[in-house]
Design a protein that fits this description.
With 163 residues, this protein is mostly helical. It has helices at 4-33, 37-63, 83-110, 114-144, 148-159. The termini are far apart.
């Protein structure tokens, strides 16, 4: 049973996931301009993953015959000062997404929308991974400090994502 409140919330989450992709693309552009192609590649893949999340939500609405609504995508922040700054923003953003997913799941429970609950369980687990990965990279960047050779090594490591 899909309720209009759950459907509206899923539509908002689709928008939020597309925004996430847009934000990570802006972060990729920062890393490109900083000559950190591994970081840029990692963020591009992250942007693609967020768009896949949006499609998972879209497909759920299509499968249950729910209406879809499309809103404008907000302009992401494009001012970054360092790789640490980018990953501080990344972690904070993922924590916000987690709160949104948890709220959406709670709504699906309150509305007895069992198909949405099942679909959202994947997102709950995914957000654990997203926050963990962002926190680990941020911790590594903080340990690196101003050691440029270590930053270059991390750039190479992140560039291997998806390879």
């Amino acid at each position: 049973m899909n309720t209009s409140r759950v459907v509206q919330a899923i539509n908002r989450q689709i928008n939020a996931e597309i925004y996430s992709g847009y934000l990570y693309l802006a972060m990729a552009a920062y890393f490109e301009s900083a000559s950190l192609p591994g970081f840029a590649g990692w963020m591009k893949l992250q942007a693609q993953e967020e768009l896949q999340h949006a499609m998972r939500l879209f497909d759920h609405l299509a499968d249950v015959g729910a209406p879809m609504a499309f809103d404008a995508i907000a302009k992401p922040d494009t001012e970054f000062t360092s790789p640490v700054h980018v990953f501080e923003k990344t972690l904070a953003h993922e924590q916000e997404v987690t709160r949104n997913i948890h709220d959406l799941y709670a709504l699906a429970v309150a509305e007895s929308d069992y198909p949405a609950q099942v679909m959202l369980q994947w997102f709950v687990a995914e957000q654990v991974e997203e926050e963990k990965t962002a926190a680990e990279i941020l911790d590594t960047l903080r340990r690196i400090g101003d050691k440029s050779h270590a930053l270059v090594a991390l750039d190479r490591e992140l560039g291997r994502r998806g390879a």
